[in-house]
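Notebook entry, structure prediction.
Reason for the run: the old model in the group folder had no record of what sequence produced it. Starting over properly, with the input documented here first.
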Amino acid sequence: MTTDAGRPGPRNSITDVPGIRVGQAQRVGEGWLTGTTVVVPGPEGAFAGVDVRGGGPGTRETDLLDPRTQVERVHAVVLGGGSALGLAAADGVARRLLAAGVGHPVGGPGEVVPIVPAAILFDLGRGGVFGHHPDADLGAAAYDAASEEVRLGNAGAGTGARVGGLKGGVGTASYVLPDGSTVGAVVALNAVGSCVDPATGEVYAARHCLPGDLPDLVRPDAAEVEQARAAGAGQATNPTPLATTIGVIATDLTLTKAQCAKVAGIGHDGLARAISPVHTMYDGDTLFTLATGARAAPDDAAFHGLLEAAAGCVTRAVARALLAAETTTTPWGTMRSFRDAFPSALPR
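New structure, fully documented this time:
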């Protein structure tokens, strides 16, 4: 990442953007391995955009984010497991918002419709029971847990995630621009492609990270790379399963819906630096952008800097998700973490 004179925020998290909170809930064991992550702006909501690049998306309310449509603000964004079934989690978030009187006004006091876009990834069956998926109750639990702390790795929407034969998970990162504005991203990493160079075991995104993002990494031992290759770890998954990486970018700048959509689109460049191949026909890769409007609208140069920083945050969030993920074993099988597959890559 080449943006000058900036730094990560104090938490290196999307919640470094003032007013943004993240809640996560998951179910593990007895056939379960799935979860939900919800990103919540303040009660006034946030301007929003979306960019869908994968060939197999599962989404809710994305048409509403088209700049040509009427509604300007959203009140939460839900990321979840469970494929299309997991979109039910957004209902629980919408009910919580309605009870709080938060939503798009359509009448008198309390007459609001919460706007809750959502995107899902495929993790069905990885806990052992195919039909287990996030529902409205899990979405409500994630909303209730919203705070400034974001658990990385095996949490929320990343609970059952898998990437290139390794365990996936949740990652986040932030960046404070020279003018004091902040941008951050949270992703649930679950891709057909790999985050690891199969020839060397090196993490693609590592070269784009900032000091403190990751532990110091070195090239893994050749023997570990060969063992991982034989086990299919660190390589694009074959035969190809259903997958999908999803995420949210947020900033405290004032942006239009069209600008939010542009930020989300550039965020996909961040995915492309971290995952290979990306945006396949078996991935539904989707990124949302939220703009809280706490700071003034950027000029052209500042908007360019925001775009660059946003893509960098996505790349760094992917790397942090990979390094935070923990090996998981269920009746479905074992998903080894990067740390366990390539232990020599980490400092002793």
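Summary: Residues 326 and 337 are 5 Å apart (CA to CA).
The old model has been moved to the deprecated folder.
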